[in-house]
Amino acid sequence: MRDQPEAERPDLTCDVAIIGAGTAGIAAERAARDEGARTLLIDPEFRGTLCANTGCMPSKLLIVAAKAAHDARRAPVFGVQPGALQVDGPAVMTRLREERDRFVAFTRESFDDLPEGTAITGRARFTGPTTLVLEDGRRVQARAVVIATGSTPIVPPPFRDLGPRVLTTETIFELPDLPDSLAVIGGGPIGLELAQAMGRLGVAVTLFDRETRLGKARADDIHEALSQAVARDLTLCLGVDTEARADPQGIRIDWSGPQQGHAVFSHVLVATGRAPTLDGLDLAAAGLELDDHGTPVFDRDTMRCGTSAVFIAGDADADAPLLHEASDEGALAGCNAARYPQVRPGPRSIPFTLTFTDPPLAQLGAEPGDDTLTGRSDYSDQGRARAEARAEGLVVLHADPQGRLTGAELCCPGAEHLSHLLVWAVQSGATAADLLLLPFYHPTLEEGLKGALKEICRQIRLPQAEAPATTCAVRDA
Ligand SMILES: Cc1cc2nc3c(=O)[nH]c(=O)nc-3n(C[C@H](O)[C@H](O)[C@H](O)COP(=O)(O)OP(=O)(O)OC[C@H]3O[C@@H](n4cnc5c(N)ncnc54)[C@H](O)[C@@H]3O)c2cc1C
Ligand SMILES: NC(=O)c1ccc[n+]([C@@H]2O[C@H](COP(=O)([O-])OP(=O)(O)OC[C@H]3O[C@@H](n4cnc5c(N)ncnc54)[C@H](O)[C@@H]3O)[C@@H](O)[C@H]2O)c1
């Protein structure tokens, strides 16, 4: 530094500068510090993670309120009469925000544990391969940089500039009351989860998507189960183009394609995807190679961008925009940034997505190939699901020619838990026969997996023996 002219001398120096204090950035900072690096964690707001503020947690809080309404509405199936159902919209939104704020406070408290001088408030942009400048003019020089700037909702042109009735996940959780009616544009995880929850809370919801496939469901029968389920709570309008304009009563949506029509909604939720937050970072100054979408080209085993000293993690890399991936990628990026130039590949978990509809949609592992074995379990008459009056959907398991499980698709009651068991089984290298030898308690949703596991075993003559203690004959003896 000493031979740099004073005007170019950095105000702040460190081994690893992390841009963005969300889940990925927090994990990167911790991992780099654990490796002995001097770190700076830079964020304009330090408001806590997206997950806690406007992502996973508030969306799940809305979903649990919707579940309470749904359970009350279907209680008469069991002979239980809860009386006339009333949903208190302001109370739903108040509880959501109170609980959300608790989660946010926890993520903010983690900033208090940072070593003094580590948290730097400001918006960063590159001025060179490992140099940054903050809005207030402070210059930062690092040995390596981690980009962990997250993502931002995409709002297509027809929905821009129509005022506060057009919502994104940045604004929907701030509503003082539930909307009277809601058009949801986009049937990905965000659109599906929030549309079904709002529908169950009594909001008249129509979900529009320009594609005919919801939630990127990979298998036709899984998609069929999902769309049948959500269509009970809302109106589906798929494969259509939408136009929007302001109307005295709200927002008018005109749609065209296989179906045509128009309607006025009090609010519109735009859930048409999220883009990495890379604008304003001046990636050109960092000299990074960019893909067609302007995202740095990086190695997902090391999180390194090309041959540079820049690493990327979380939604910013547009690879797998999920909480557990942001956390894992952050840790890997931070570790490698601290060790730079000694960069090593880190472990990556197998692909796993879970959309919290009811029933949930879960997909894990690789897509099936030509030699993939498949086994199915039908949940439309599964014992425990039937007892709970929610028997529907199916599980499809995939295995390699030796019977080793490689992936699964689920849309059935309990899929969020069943898919966890299955992803653990896949990651541990278990075969279908191995799982059949494990205990299955009765009567559970897990028992429903046996049909699919046996079908795989039959195809390659693997033993279909079950763990003896779980068979009725032994239990009854
Ligand atoms: C409604 C919704 C529901 C979701 N539900 C789930 C779910 O159930 N399960 C799941 O696994 N995932 C879910 N996700 C996805 C998950 O929330 C994200 O993948 C994850 O939170 C991304 O973390 P991140 O660290 O990449 O980004 P963030 O937490 O957004 O952090 C990015 C940080 O970068 C900062 N920043 C941006 N630009 C700059 C700059 N120039 N300089 C300095 N700082 C900057 C921002 O201020 C921010 O603090 C959901 C997302 C949404 C929107
Ligand atoms: N449970 C979870 O894990 C969870 C929940 C919510 C969000 N997320 C994460 O957030 C990310 C973003 O979610 P998302 O649902 O916004 O995005 P997405 O990209 O997954 O889905 C967007 C949907 O909008 C549709 N679409 C795009 N442009 C459109 C247009 N102009 N008109 C009509 N439809 C249009 C697409 O066909 C697609 O179905 C997801 O990829 C996921 O990783 C995860």
Structure in words:
- The chain has 477 residues and is of the alpha/beta class.
- It has three domains: 6-52 and 96-152 and 275-339, 3-Layer(bba) Sandwich (FAD/NAD(P)-binding domain); 157-272, FAD/NAD(P)-binding domain, CATH 3.50.50; 352-476, Enolase-like, domain 1 (2-Layer Sandwich), CATH 3.30.390.30.
- 30% of the residues lie in helices and 23% in strands.
- The protein has 13 helices and 22 strands.
- The chain has helices at residues 23-34, 50-53, 56-74, 89-112, 189-200, 220-230, 283-286, 323-339, 383-387, 415-428, 432-436, 449-459, 472-476, and strands at 12-19, 39-43, 119-121, 124-128, 131-134, 139-147, 151-153, 166-167, 181-185, 204-209, 235-238, 241-247, 250-256, 261-265, 267-270, 274-276, 310-312, 352-355, 361-365, 373-378, 394-399, 405-411.
- Strands 1, 2, 3, 4, 5, 6 and 17 form a seven-stranded mixed sheet that branches.
- α1 packs parallel to α8, α3 runs antiparallel to α4 (89-112) and α3 (56-74) packs parallel to α5.
- The longest helix is centred in the N-terminal third of the chain and has 24 residues, at 89-112.
- It is globular.
- The N and C termini lie far apart (81 Å).
- Mean pLDDT is 95; it is low at 469-477.
- The structure holds flavin-adenine dinucleotide and nicotinamide-adenine-dinucleotide.
- Flavin-adenine dinucleotide (FAD) is lined by residues 19-25, 42-45, 49-51, 55-56, 59, 123-124, 148-150, 169, 190, 277, 280-281, 314-316, 321-324, 326.
- The site of flavin-adenine dinucleotide has 35 residues, from α1, β2, α2, α3 and α8.
